[in-house]
Each structure stands twice: as C-alpha cells, then as structure tokens.
Write a structure and sequence with these properties.
By secondary structure, the protein is mainly alpha-helical. It has helices at residues 2-23, 31-65, 69-81, 88-98. Helix 1 (2-23) runs antiparallel to helix 2.
Length: 99
C-alpha cells in the first residue's frame, strides 16, 4: 500500500511540475539565475509536496481498503476457536504459541 501511495504521489508531483513548467514559460530567459539562486528551495518544496501527497494517498488508501479489517479478523478468530476449525493442525499451532 505504501508503494502505491508513493507511486501516485510521484505521478501527481510530476504532473504538477509539468503543468507549472507550461504555465511559467515567461520565466525561461531567467531559468539559470532562478535555479542558481533558488534551486535548493524549489527542490525542498517539491520534496515536501511529494511527502505530503504520499501521506495523503496512504491515509485515503487505509481508509478505503482497511475499513472493515477488524470485523473480518474477529470472524476468523471466532472460526479458529470453534470445534469445526479450518485446519486442526493450524489450530494446534496457534494454541501452542498462546501458551
């Protein structure tokens, strides 16, 4: 899930950078001076945008895909505790680890 969030954040950051490059064409004659004087700040800002987008996509992914995981895990736990468990071998391994 983290890799998917990072991929979406990188794609969004690159799309945003491409859109900004198209909109700021009037600054092309000054690009050398801009990157020499402000390149570090531009890079840090792009990194912060990437990290914020990555965390936002990660939180949205957790909210969407792990919404009912507690209910699902409770169902599996109840099924393993029952007499008709999925596999008796697996049930014995779990009981040994709990001791």
């Amino acid at each position: 899930m983290m890799a998917n969030a990072a991929l979406l954040a990188a794609l969004t950051t690159f799309l945003l950078a491409g859109w900004l490059a198209g909109e700021l064409t009037f600054l092309v004659p000054y690009k050398t001076a801009i990157f020499r004087n402000h390149g570090l700040h531009i890079g840090i800002a792009a990194l912060l945008v990437f990290l914020n987008l990555s965390s936002a996509f990660y939180m949205v992914g957790r909210w969407l895909f792990l919404r009912e995981s507690g209910r699902k895990l409770t169902h599996v736990d109840r099924q393993l505790d029952s007499a008709s468990a999925i596999h008796q071998d697996f049930r014995q391994v779990i009981q040994r680890k709990q001791r």
